[in-house]
Specification:
The protein is α+β, with helices and mostly antiparallel strands and 324 residues long. The protein has helices at residues 3-11, 19-26, 30-42, 66-72, 75-78, 93-100, 153-167, 217-220, 230-233, 239-260, 266-272, and strands at residues 47-50, 54-57, 83-87, 109-113, 135-143, 173-176, 180-183, 186-197, 203-211, 279-283, 288-296, 302-306, 309-313, 319-322. Strands 3-4-5-9-8-7-6 form a seven-stranded mixed β-sheet, sandwiched between helices. A five-stranded antiparallel β-sheet has the order 13-12-11-10-14. Strands 1-2 form a two-stranded antiparallel sheet. The model has no long low-confidence stretch (mean pLDDT 94). The structure holds adenosine-5'-triphosphate and biotin. Residues 121-123, 125, 127-128, 179-180, 187, 190, 210, 212, 223-225, 227, 319-320 line the site of adenosine-5'-triphosphate (ATP).
């Protein structure tokens, strides 16, 4: 296990630890301990250092543990999980699974990371992914049909996230078409769907979810819109429990989506639609259109009413914003 990771494991109890005691426990010098803590601080982790007492995490957090997550899964959904790997540091969990998909991984395979160095959002945007307690998770799923059959998959994934939030006691959340989970209008989670394969099938999808659990203050300054984390809504929830609930709900939703597509999720999605019947502006690649959002159709396309006429839009290169 890398030194950073072992140190974090010890510090995750929230107590002070002297550099000397940490060094002795890990069989390294005090200066190696200091260097490792410094580098984690540079990555945005808030570590308090008090002369005479040592080091402690400003906000202690539970490191992700494979066995703890698997233990939370009940027999039913657990059987749908074909594997789960946890990385301390990775470029992007989505990119990793898109690459690994070529090695024959099966549906239901998860990749999670403590931090991403190149976390990605939609349309080449960055996803702010510091070390310090958020969740970065990707799931691989294979489909017999081609990518056209996956219209609506990222909407179904949004339902999985909101179901997990419900179980965790977090209410007042909503969905912003096509891929954001909001809490009181602020971005709590984002979903990135990537698909590869033959036009007529088979194909595979990687569904990536970034869920803000405890966003370190410094890193947050890079986020260009209103955001929120779980710690500010409902403090003290264990990350392994949150991750397991996400894994569980995603497995249930994906199994249903594979059988019957989006149809079983449309009403639920509409009931969570943050912008339903509100004035919005739709950003298309070359122009903007203002209208009233009329939620989604059976395929998951956005319905926009302009001067009494409703048109439909697929998620591709389209962004929705509230007006006013
Ligand atoms: P749309 O998908 O409709 O264009 P969007 O503006 O949310 O909506 P996305 O591509 O989905 O765009 O997400 C990228 C946006 O999310 C960027 O504005 C970025 O600043 C913001 N962002 C990046 N990291 C985070 C994070 N951890 N939490 C909340 N928002 C983030
Ligand atoms: C968005 O709102 O634009 C989508 C953000 C998706 C972020 C997640 S974090 C896990 C997975 N790996 C990535 O690089 N991106 C997704």
């Amino acid at each position: 296990m890398p030194l950073d990771q072992t140190l974090l494991k010890i510090l995750s109890n929230g107590q002070f630890h002297s550099g000397e005691a940490l060094g002795a426990q890990l069989g390294v010098t005090r200066s190696a301990v200091w260097k490792s803590l410094q580098s984690m601080q540079q990555q945005g982790l808030d570590i308090h250092s008090v002369p005479g007492r040592g080091y402690k995490l400003a906000r202690p957090f539970e490191l992700l543990e494979k066995n703890t997550i698997l233990e939370y899964l009940d027999g039913g959904s657990g059987q749908l999980c074909s594997g789960l790997e946890i990385h301390f540091e990775i470029g992007s969990t989505n990119r990793h699974l898109m690459q690994q998909a070529r090695t024959g991984l099966k549906s239901g395979y998860f990749c999670l990371a403590e931090q991403q160095l190149q976390g990605r959002g939609r349309r080449g945007r960055d996803w702010v992914s510091p070390l310090g307690g958020n969740i970065y998770l990707s799931l691989l799923w294979r489909f017999a049909e081609g990518p056209a059959s996956l219209a609506g998959l990222s909407l179904a994934a949004g339902i999985a996230v909101t179901r997990a939030l419900n179980v965790l006691g977090i209410t007042e959340h909503g969905l912003k078409w096509p891929n954001d989970v909001l809490w009181k209008g602020k971005k709590l989670a984002g979903i990135l769907l990537e698909v590869a394969g033959e036009a007529t099938g088979p194909c595979h999808a990687v569904i990536g979810i970034g869920l803000n659990v405890a966003m370190p203050k410094e890193a947050a300054s890079a986020i260009e819109q209103a955001w929120v984390d779980i710690e500010s809504i409902r403090p003290g929830l264990g990350r392994n429990r949150i991750a397991a609930e996400l894994v569980h709900q995603l497995l249930v939703v994906l199994a249903q989506f594979q059988q019957s597509g989006l149809s079983g999720f449309v009403d639920e999605w509409r009931s969570l639609d943050h912008f339903a019947n509100q004035e919005v502006v739709l950003h298309l690649p070359v122009r903007k259109i203002e209208g009233i959002a009329r939620s989604i159709d059976e395929q998951g396309s956005l319905c926009l009413e302009v001067e009494g006429k409703v048109s439909r839009y697929g998620s591709g290169e389209v962004s929705l914003r509230g007006l006013g």
